[in-house]
Amino acid sequence: MAVPIRWKAAGKKTDRVQTKKSNGDPMSCLICAGVAERIQCRGPWEERDCPDCGRYRISDELLLVLMDQGQIFDVSKTRGWLDRRRIEVAIPSIELHQALLMS
Hints:
By secondary structure, the protein is an alpha/beta fold. The chain has helices at 60-69, 75-85, and strands spanning 3-7, 26-28, 35-39, 45-50, 54-59, 71-73, 93-94, 99-101. The chain has one domain. Helices cover 20% and strands 32% of the residues. A hairpin with a 6-residue loop joins β2 and β3 (35-39). The protein starts with a strand and ends with a strand.
């Protein structure tokens, strides 16, 4: 099952990722844009721990596509997808091939 992503609304600010990247500092959740902790991880990933979305990883490749195409995650569907993945893995990861890009 793919993670649903939708187009951003025209005219809305979409720069949801803050630039400060030291471990443990408050950052924005890459799914809901709420406050989340950035977790240091190895490899081409961004990892967050959000009080509402939980802990997850998103590939750098997917983040670049999202920013390039002006897309964002469907929050409720992505949270549900993460919850289902947590049955199998402690920290679910979303990669480009798992994302369903919707217009």
